Amino acid sequence: MIPHASDRSQIDPRRLALAGCDRELYQLIAATGYVPDDQNFSDFCESLKSGRAWLISGTRGSGKTAFPEALASACNLTMCVVAGRDGLKQEEILYDWDREEQDVWMRENLVIAKALPATEQSAFLESARRKKWQREFLILGEVGLAYDLAVKAAQATPRQPPPVLLLDESDKFGATIEDSLLMPLERGLIYIPRYEGGCIGVTEWAYRPIVITTSNDLRHKLSGPFISRHIYSRFANPTLEKELEILSAREPTASSAQLALAIKLLDAVRGIAGMEDHPSIRESIDVAGAFVRNSVESLDYGSISRFFCYFVKTGEARELLSLQLDYLLAMTSAFHPIIDAWLADRDEIWANRWPQLVGINE
Ligand SMILES: Nc1ncnc2c1ncn2[C@@H]1O[C@H](COP(=O)(O)OP(=O)(O)O)[C@@H](O)[C@H]1O
Ligand SMILES: [Mg+2]
Known about the structure:
Radius of gyration: 27 Å
Order of helices and strands: HHHEHEHEHHEHEHEEEHEHHHHHHHHH
CATH topology of the largest domain: Rossmann fold
Strand content: 5-15%
Bound molecules: adenosine-5'-diphosphate, magnesium ion
Mean pLDDT: 95
Distance between the termini: 54 Å
C-alpha cells in the first residue's frame, strides 16, 4: 500500500465525476504530466460514476500503469497495488490468518482456563476459540486492504475518498485469482469463513475502491466473468498530436527541435516493415529525454545509432535499422505536416522555419 500524504488534502475523483466536473479531474491528472486519451478518460469517468472496476488493455508502454499512478498522485489517494505474476496466491492478495498469533492466543487461554473452576472451563475455552477468528489475527492483502480502507473512508466524518486499487498485469493472475476477485468486484465484499465480522467491504457502489485493472493480453486470456465485471477500454497507440502533447508534458524543457526529432524518428521507425516490436510511448519519452540530456538538436550518421538502444530491443531489429540510416535521417529532417504544424502552433520560430506551413495555415 502506498498511503496518501496526510499533510495534503484529498480530492474524491468519484465525487468530481458525479458532479459533472470531468474536465476538472482531467486537468488535475494532466497537471501530473500524464495526458489521458479523451475517449479512455470518458470511459474512466463512466467507471467512476457506476462504481464498476475499469479494465484497460493495451500494448506495453501505452500508459496503463501510469494512469492509476497519476490519478492517485493528482487526488492524493491511497493506492493498493497487486502486481501480476505466476504463482500469486489468493491469501497474498485477499486475506490470511496469522496462525502463529492464533496459536499463542490459544496457549495463553489454555493456561487461564486451567486456573478456572472446572465448570467454567469449557465455556471459557469455547469463547476463546471463537475469538481466534477476530480481526486482530487477520492479515489483509492489498485487495482486502483496499476494500477495508474503502469502508473506513465511507464511515469517516467528513467522508474520505476511497483508495485506488491497481490490479496490474492481470493477464498473469491465472484463473484462481481471477475467480477469487469476482465476488469483491461484483458485491463489493470479501467473505471470510469463520471471521467474527463475516466479511470485509462495502456494497454501495459509490463508496467502493476505485479499481483499475490492466492487461497486456499476453500471458493468459482473461475469463469472461472477470472481464464482465469491468468497464472496458483499449489503450491504442496515440495520434501524433497526442504523442507530442505527452512528450512535451513529460519533457517540459525539450525544445521544438528535440520534440520534432524524437517523434519523427520514432514515427519513421514504426513505419519500417519488418520491425516486430513497435516502439511505444515509453520509448518516445525515453528518446526525447536522451535528446534533452545530451543537448541533441539534430542527428547525423555518427549520432543516430547512439540512440537506437532506447527503442531497438533485438539484434535483428538493430541490423534492420542500420540498413535504413538514410531513410531515418531523411525522415527526421523532412517537413511533417502534422508534427511541424503542431509545434508551429506553439512556437513562432518553428513556424517561420517551414515555408510549407504557410499553405496549411491559410
Ligand atoms: N498518456 C500519457 N501521458 C504521459 N505519460 C505517459 C502516457 N502514456 C504513457 N506514458 C509514460 O510512458 C511510460 C510507460 O507507461 P506505463 O504506464 O508504464 O505503460 P504500461 O503499463 O502500459 O506498460 C511511463 O513513463 C508513462 O509515464
Ligand atoms: Mg504496466
